[in-house]
Amino acid sequence: MDARKTSDLGNKEILARNLQNYLDLAHKTRNDLAKDLGFKYTTVSNWLQADRYPRIDKIEMMARYLGIDKSDLIERPSKPKSAAGIRIPILGSVVAGVPIEAIEDVLGYEEISEKLAHDGKFFALKVKGASMYPKICEDDIVIVREQPDVESGQIAVVLINGNEATVKAVRKQIDGITLIGYNVDVYQPHFYSNQEIESLPVKVVGRVVELHRSF
After folding, report:
1. For a FRET experiment, which of 58, 76, 121, 142 has its CA 20 to 30 Å from that of 101?
2. Residue 84 pLDDT > 60, yes or no?
3. What pTM did the predictor assign?
4. Does the annotation count 168 as an active-site position?
């Protein structure tokens, strides 16, 4: 360990930042960490708030729990570490007129490959409802490339009336578009005329390019 990294040992801010990063990557909360390892919730909170520094045995326990090296928690990384690539925010909603990066309804973070990340600007959205079942289920995470339009037949995130986003297949027609859900018992195909697209409005904010599902 070089002199710089030696000086990182005992640095509460570095440990707090690293610990939060690896909890996010593992899709774990501070409550999960406390419960699974038998720590007090307040103790974990103190570590994450950089108020206190854990004993070395506690650091080793957390490293094993997160599947990382002890040094990953106590050393200053030269660059953000991610096994799968680039982190993007998981949003619970999308609101008209608000830039994606300004939305505060962030549920966590998902990862996409560096190769995909170079192909545009992305966000993740947690799916609500069963209108796209069985292809997309409630609580699935869809990876969305920000773009104002999609080709006919592609799955898009669409804003209607400026409310929360809906995930639907888009069928384009000369006189408008039809939003299609795969579960017709929940959502019948809905047509919007070109006039309604402008007046409501109906706005595509991105194309669904990947689906991430936990079992």
Report:
1. 76
2. no
3. 0.59
4. yes
Q: Which of 131, 135, 172, 214 is catalytic?
A: 131
Catalytic residue selected from 168, 193, 203, 214: 168
Domains of the chain: 3-74 (1.10.260.40), 87-212 (2.10.109.10)
- Alpha-carbon distance of 149 to 153, in angstroms, equals 12
Q: Evaluate if residue 121 carries a pLDDT over 60.
A: yes
Q: Is 131 a catalytic residue?
A: yes
Q: Are 63 and 70 within 8 A, CB to CB? A: yes
Determine the pLDDT at residue 80: 46
One-letter identity of residue 68: I
Determine phi and psi for 48, rounding to 5 degrees: -70, -25
Closest residue by Cα to residue 47 from 66, 27, 7, 19: 19
Angle, in degrees to the nearest 10, between helices 12-25 and 56-66: 20
Q: How many CB atoms lie within 10 A of CB 182?
A: 16
